[in-house]
Amino acid sequence: MAGGKGKSSSGGRDHPVRAEPQHGSSKTSNQEKAQVTGNENQSGIASTIETVSLVLIAAVAFAIRLFSIVKYESVIHEFDPYFNYRVTQLASEKGVDAFWNFFDDRTWYPLGRVVGGTIYPGLTLTATWIHWFLKAALKLHPVEVKDVCVMIGPLFSSFTAISTYLMVRQIKGRGAGLLAASFVATIPSYISRSVAGSYDNESVAIFALTNTFYLYLKSIDTGSMFWGVAASLSYFYMVSSWGGYTFIINLIPIHALALLIIDKFNWKLYTGYSMFIVNGTVLAMVLPVIGFNAVETSEHFSGFFVLALMNGVALVKYLKRTLTREAYKKAFRLFVTTSVAVMGVVSLAVITFAMTSPTLRWSGRSLSLLDPTYASKYIPIIASVSEHQAPSWSSFVNDLRLAIILMASGIVSCFRPLTAGSLFLVIWGVLSVYFSAVMVRLMLVLAPAACCLAGIAMSDLLEVLCRSYHLAQPKPEDAGRKEDGQARRRGRRRNSGSSQQRGTIPRPLALLGISGAIFALSYHLFHCSFLGGEGYSSPSIILQSRTRDGGVYIFDDYREGYSWLRENTDYDAKVASWWDYGYQTTAMADRTVLVDNNTWNNTHIATVGRAMASPEESAWKQFRALDVDYVFVIFGGLVGYSSDDINKFLWMVRIGGGVYGDIKERDYIGEGYYRIDEKASPVMLNTLMYKLSYYRFAETVGRDGQDRVRNTKFGNPDVKLTYFREAFTSKHWMIRIYEVLEEPLLEQAH
User: What confidence score (pLDDT) does residue 3 get?
Assistant: First the structure.
């Protein structure tokens, strides 16, 4: 019993020893729970701040595009949006079936146009369904189709900011994502195409582009078939919205090929890419405007080539994993031999098929990107469009501002470390820089890439600055002396933090850098707001200038001219003008036109160009043969409006001369260059375009007056018309409408 008691006593002495670790373990557990709770609270706060910031960025993206409504009114801008608006009205009022079956007999007279088979329907159907939803579900009956069309650009700009955030967050984290979203929300290049009233395809297409890229990267990161199908559906929306979808269908295969080259192939890449290419191609073929072009044109071949190559790599890796070394060598030799033979046959078939087309089955715009001189040599109708010209260097700084400055740093950051997502951003940025340097319109593709890279660069910069500021803080001096144990713990913390101080800078420099970054971002926002309000908010049909006392003067000649046509001509009257104004004429004047901005028939446009470049009598015969009742020209010589038809005239000559051999550009060149003064070419002074522009101009500015666009005297102040009669001239002479007479007036009183 004593022994038992001794054991019991000994056990009693051992019990507190065993209980102490349990007590310490409980204490540690409580500390861990407290730390986890604190981390959860911090994570919740961070998520809340992140969500609020993203909502505010989306709100800024929407609000910064409303200057046009505040300064002017809720009106459709530019030229192409008027056709989109007109078709959306039809779809909203008569249904989607009427839209698909719509034959427009009021354009391209006498040919007409099958609208359902020649239009990218994404924008129209989006606005139609939004309008139906607002009226049917939300019962907002006062909302008109025009209001929805005007607001499409700002609305989808907010969506673009969100999709950009999601994409960059997946690649580099939430800070980079928020900064990239803030950049894309305010970048002027994107504002120019998504301002309120800019109801054009690009206003929804950039959202579709960024969303497709996000979902594609998500699919190859997770290997989920769901995300691959989602990416293909987003691509389908992009295809239905804009012809620039060919950029996506080439960029993604290039990225996948790059991953194969650097040996980053895995089953996730295979799943995501194959789902995207196969489903996306099948869906694209559903659209009438695309059809079999999705598998027959050279723009789409790269996706199939990379898919075939990826299947080959997958097969090789499978054989290597399952076969013995000797069996694998034999199988590999057989595979290489067979692949070379098959690829040779397939390549020969593809090349033979491509050679059946004079352009090797490339579209004219694609060839213009690959060879910047192609359009000017062979397709002047493409080269004549201002947005197809190469941009000036100032355009990059003006339209991208801080983003283009930070873009190079963002590319460097993407290599630390190089992941599939960061490699995608590098390829996107480099290719979009090239394409935007060839065609100013593609600055729109460069803008989101520059914003993503700029957001990453700014995030890395702020991370270094903030880390340096916090780690370099001086330790506060305590009033009393600390215990030795506490001092030792501080020493251990300092030693452990020495590794964190690598890559930091002194605290004063960090504070200066943070201040500089805040200033740069503030100035960037100020510049974007100013350019959005002053540079890109003016509708093309409503112009303004500043008076000497700082007031605003409005030029409303376009709507004045179209209103005159609508109210003073027969409903079936045929109106001829240069193709730039076709969409506006059918939408605002509701009159039949010969050509419009669709530019699908080069010969028809060349016929109008030839008539404008012909003498009056010859032009009269040509217009009479086309049943034309009225001809109008845009003239800016009185008020200094530079986008007039005299400045566009050489393109009319080039396009007309490309079809009709009797039109030679050299015949319209004066002494040394194209001019309209006394030294202008006699052929130029006798053209219909010159006569319609300068008829009675001397009565307003005097015989010695000047053309305020060309800043020179006009060559023939005594213009007389025999086959055309002036019907209307707007207040500022910007739109001049003439009636085509049935018989010439051989005797006129001038």
Answer: 44
